[in-house]
Amino acid sequence: MTRLARQLAAVARRDARVQRTYGISAALGLLSSGFGLFSYHFVGRLVPSGGGSALPASGYFAFVCTGLMLHMMVMSTLSALGGALAREAAEGTLEPALAAGVSPAALVAGATVVPLGLALLQAVIYAGAGSWMSGIAWSQACVATALVTLAATLVACAPLGLLGAALWLVLRRPGVVTTLTAFAFGILGGVYFPVALLPAPLRAVADWVPLAVGLHAFRAALLEGAGLAQTVPALGRLALVATVTFPPAALALRFAFDRARRRGSLPLV
Amino acid sequence: MGAIRLDRLVQRLGDREVLRAITLQLPPGEVLGLSGPNGAGKTTLLRVIAGLLLPTAGVVRVLGLSADRARRSGCIGWCGSGDGSWVRRLDLRGGLSFHARAGGLGRAAAATRIDELAERLGFRSHLDMPADRCSAGIRQRAALARALLLRPPVLLFDEPLRGIDAASQTEILVTLRHELAGRTVIWVSHSKEELASIGDRSAELTGGHLHEAPRLWTAA
């Protein structure tokens, strides 16, 4: 096991241990998340599906349910990435961890494990609730393709989280990038309505928004049983986005970390 | 070669020059007791050596490495004066275990070392309590244990006994003498008695300058 992987696993284990202390309240939070779908169930009754509506044949509720599943997992991960250093600083654990040789990369990446795990559980609850409320049939879903698409989408979105962490080190205000991303994803991500409804210029932008690209493949995998071969174009696009955006985001985090250490603004106890 | 070597170290924070051309050579296994008035730059000096701050000018070498490289290699143990450096909901064992496992100890070795240090530093009965239910003194003992966990060759202690009751301080100092043997240590304190009982050399930081006083304090 490399040093980074070992440190990342230690962060994840610690966070899981903290999460367990929330016990019943965490379980109730997970269960109650399924109830958020209720309103979309009723909205779905108002929205015609098929034909020229730009919605898949499975209808609006299935469309938004799958959209929310991926959106939730992506935003949990981004929020954890962007807020990891802020949380460590707030707890006072940043200084001892860094002094002991734990790398900022391990703190940032390790912080995503538990929130992503919880979001995955929530997605499963959404799937169950969707099936129970509206009879969404998951029988033809290709779960393997959906998981590969999820992983590719997370990797392609991760630079936004790294940028969030970097900006926090510079501005000391948490959530700047996450808030902007949530706003942009709400419009361009195709979570609540098909991107086909957007005006042409915005549609052209949405074609490169990782959530929109990933969501298209994710829905195809879960609602139409699309296999890996059918999602290759989307995966290729996500890989391209990740390849182009990851190095500058990682450099920005490195730069922000060193800048804070030079100025003495690294938030320490 | 010094285990810690500072050569004309300057640290500027904002408009203020906190450390001014500090030069220091600390041989392996030596304990330097460092004192100085509030705001003199003692904590800043430790942070630069720990690689938490990048120096404005000058050279910092720890075990022949740059401070940043030394930090990343895990050869520095750090104990700050703040006792709040624990995840509040997590028990002390969990917090210590995180550092032990991240530093490369296996599960069993980590558990053994944590139990051993908790016993020696007198907080074993509090190991499984969440940090926010422990007193400041207990958390500070655990912070000491955290610095010692991986037996790092260099230790940086910033008022490590703050918040610990006087009677226990004496016991802990006895324990620490055993743990510190062979390690290079900078120990910051306002207590001259404490520094006299633990340090081989002493120095005072005032106005950003380091004044060494090798024979200023001698253990009674």
How would you explain this protein's 3D organization?
The complex is a heterodimer of chains A (269) and B (220). Chain A is mainly α and 269 residues long. Chain A contains twelve helices and no strands. Chain A has helices spanning 3-20, 23-33, 37-46, 60-91, 94-99, 104-110, 113-134, 143-171, 176-188, 200-206, 210-223, 228-263. The longest helix of chain A is centred in the last third of the chain and has 36 residues, at 228-263. The radius of gyration of chain A is 19 Å and the shape is globular. In chain A, 49% of the residues are buried. By secondary structure, chain B is α/β, with parallel strands linked by helices. The model of chain B is unreliable at 215-220 (pLDDT under 50). Helix content of chain B is 34%, strand content 26%. Chain B is globular, with a radius of gyration of 17 Å. Chain B contains seven helices and ten strands. In chain B, helix 6 links the parallel strand 7 and strand 8. The chains are: A mainly alpha (269), B alpha/beta (220). The interface between A and B is large, with 33 and 42 residues.
SSE topology sketch:
The complex is a heterodimer of chains A (269) and B (220).
Chain A: H1 3-20, H2 23-33, H3 37-46, H4 60-91, H5 94-99, H6 104-110, H7 113-134, H8 143-171, H9 176-188, H10 200-206, H11 210-223, H12 228-263
Helix pairs in contact in A: 1-6, 3-4, 4-6, 4-7, 4-8, 4-9, 4-11, 8-9, 8-11, 8-12, 11-12
Chain B: E1 4-13, E2 16-26, E3 31-35, H1 42-49, E4 57-62, E5 65-66, H2 67-72, E6 76-79, H3 92-102, H4 107-120, H5 136-148, E7 154-158, H6 166-180, E8 184-188, H7 192-198, E9 201-206, E10 209-212
Parallel strand pairs in B: 3-8, 3-9, 6-7, 7-8
Antiparallel strand pairs in B: 1-2, 1-4, 4-5, 9-10
Helix pairs in contact in B: 3-4, 3-5
Give the strand order of the largest sheet of chain B, numbering strands 1, 2, ... along the chain.
6-7-8-3-9-10
Distance between the termini of chain A: 31 Å
Show unreliable segments of chain B: 215-220
Question: How many β-strands of chain A, per DSSP?
Answer: 0
* Shape category of chain B: globular
Average pLDDT of chain A works out at: 90
What oligomeric state best describes the polypeptide chains here? Answer: heterodimer
Report mean pLDDT of chain B, rounded to a whole number.
91
Rounded radius of gyration of chain A (Å): 19 Å
Low-confidence stretches of chain A: none
Structural class of chain B: alpha/beta
Total helix count of chain B? Answer: 7
Note the beta-strand portion of chain A.
under 5%
| Residue fraction in strands of chain B | 25-35%
Helix content of chain B: 25-40%
Per the principal axes of the C-alpha atoms, what is the gross shape of chain A? Answer: globular
- Report on the biggest sheet of chain B: 6 strands, mixed
